[in-house]
Amino acid sequence: MSSQKDFAIIDLETTGGDPSSDRITEIAIARFNGEEVVETFTSLVNPGMPIPEFITRITGIDNEMVREAPKFYEIAKRVVEMTQGAVFVAHNVRFDYSFIQKEFRQLGYTFSRPQLCTIKLSKKVLPDLKSYSLSNLCKSLKIKNEAPHRAWGDVDATVKLFKHLIGVDEKGKIREFLQDEMSEVRVPPELDRKVLAELPEETGVYYFLDKGGRVIYVGKSTNIRKRVMSHFSSAHKSKRSMRMFEQVTEINYELTGSELMALLLENEEIKRILPKYNRAQTRRSYKFGIYAAPNPDGYLELFVDKYNAKNSPLAGFSGRTHAESALASRGRKAGLCPKLYGAERGPGRCFHHQLHICQGACIGEESPESYNERVQELVDQMALGKINKDSYLIVGKGRNYEEKSVVLIQDGFYRGHTYMESSFLQQDIHAICEAIPVKKEAPDVQRIIRAYIRKHPKEVKQLQTNFLA
Q1: Which strands, in side-by-side order, build the sheet including 288-294?
Q2: What is the DSSP letter of 467?
Q3: pTM over 0.90
Q4: How confident is the model over 61-99, as pLDDT tens digits?
Q5: Are 161 and 66 a contacting pair, CB within 8 Å?
Q6: Rounded CA separation 56/74 (Å)
Q7: Mean pLDDT throughout 147-162?
Q8: What is the DSSP string of 340-397?
Q9: What is the rounded CA–CA span in Å between residue 317 and residue 294?
Q10: Which end of the chain has fewer CB atoms < 10 Å from its terminal CB, N or C?
């Protein structure tokens, strides 16, 4: 394959798999012109932190080996020179690229290169293999890796893999893939292309601004640069997105480290700023709501009706069936009468009363005062999405190595979030909670938090319910 581009084929060894908290211990780069390797560079790197034992067992790199090795800033210039004007190639490129970009950002330098992943490329050219890990590809293709799990050994194996893919690519899949991967991203006419190149591939919130400096859209992503590029590449798919595309003149962002912090910040910012392109999305999202109102006998009834923000719905839903199902489920859990939340019709007592679940509000056996206390508790829960009375902290990634993100839930209610130094989290729980600024709970916060902790249960640190009493 003739190519006008050079390829910087790279592999790293690190202290772990998280670029926000782990560091590089070894780097290897092979400059490849499409036919042969023209230059190489390899070095151990002092990570400035201990190497875990399980990493040493995998790579063979221990603390003693890197003690006198250069730190990343000492080899940074060489990395820039080896990758300048080349495509950044790696097996699982996002992993290696994220670590490199993070190290350069710590030095105040924006590292930006077009990227190519040999896992994706292998799947295109060799579609019938069971596994595309480097070790299994080497076995399948009889490629000898002289030093697996060492940067220079894996780079050499990746070069051989790349050459093999070029040699067997009779249908031009590589050229097609390169065109797709390297195609120029469309950029709004009033936006400086350099702004896009300097966006981080990290977690945070981003803001699109128009020529008047007004925020017209707020979004969040675990990879800001990739998400922004996807906005622009798909702008032609709707009139709305095209209008937004044409108005963007500036992009700001705020790194959050934690995906949960990005979700919470995005939610807050949309409600504070009310960007016009976010508002359009919000208006279309809810068609039906759950409402509460007293009936002539003084009992609070819950019912589903068309969504109207002016009528203060307790919760919003995209469809009537979804809203009615949610109301029925919550009503049953709260022991409410199905006739008073629309699940049953007709005279006489409800079916739940026959099962001794309903306490008799449907036939006047339970007083409105007693019944309405339970309804009001459910109303309070539904208004904020609260589902229990637990108290806990959610402790996640921070914006740098020294800090953690902390979200406080007290008695089931969201109370606020902040960043703390990891050492401060060893303090008394009262001191930790007092250091978290109190925030008013906005709609959707509980939904955001519940969805997050289902995916990240290990970040939840349970507290006693009355810990602030």
Answers
A1: 300-306, 288-294, 315-317
A2: T
A3: no
A4: 999 999 999 999 999 999 999 999 898 999 998 899 989
A5: no
A6: 23
A7: 94
A8: GTTS--SSS--HHHHTT-S-SGGGTSS-HHHHHHHHHHHHHHHHHT-----EEEEEEE
A9: 22
A10: C
- Residue 203 Cα distances to 221, 224, 255, 270, 274, angstroms: 6, 6, 6, 17, 22
Strand partners, 397: 404
193-282 domain in CATH 3.40.1440.10? yes
Mean pLDDT across the chain, nearest whole number?
87
Does the pLDDT at position 197 exceed 80? no
pLDDT digits (tens, 9 = 90+) for 394-413: 999 998 778 999 999 988 78
Is the pLDDT at 156 greater than 90, yes or no?
yes
Q: What letter represents residue 340's amino acid?
A: L
Q: Which of 79-83, 244-248, 431-435 has the lowest mean pLDDT?
A: 431-435
**How is residue 78 written in tokens?**
């060489």
Paired strand residues for 279: none
Three-class SS of 70-107: CCHHHHHHHHHHHHCCEEEEECCHHHHHHHHHHHHHHC
- Which residue shows structure tokens 């151990």? 44
Under 8 Å between Cβ of 415 and 408: yes
d(CA 26, CA 458): 30
CB neighbours (10 Å) of residue 415?
18
Band of pLDDT at residue 283, cut at 50, 70 and 90: very low
CATH architecture of the domain formed by 6-182? 2-Layer Sandwich (3.30)
**C-alpha 235, offset from chain centre:** 22
User: Looking at 91, 149, 231, 352, which residue is catalytic?
Assistant: 149
Mean pLDDT, range 328-357, rounded to an integer: 90
Does 430 qualify as catalytic in the annotation?
Answer: no
**Helix 239-247 with 276-285: angle, nearest 10 deg:** 160
Q: For the chain, what are the domain ranges?
A: 6-182, 193-282, 288-384, 391-463
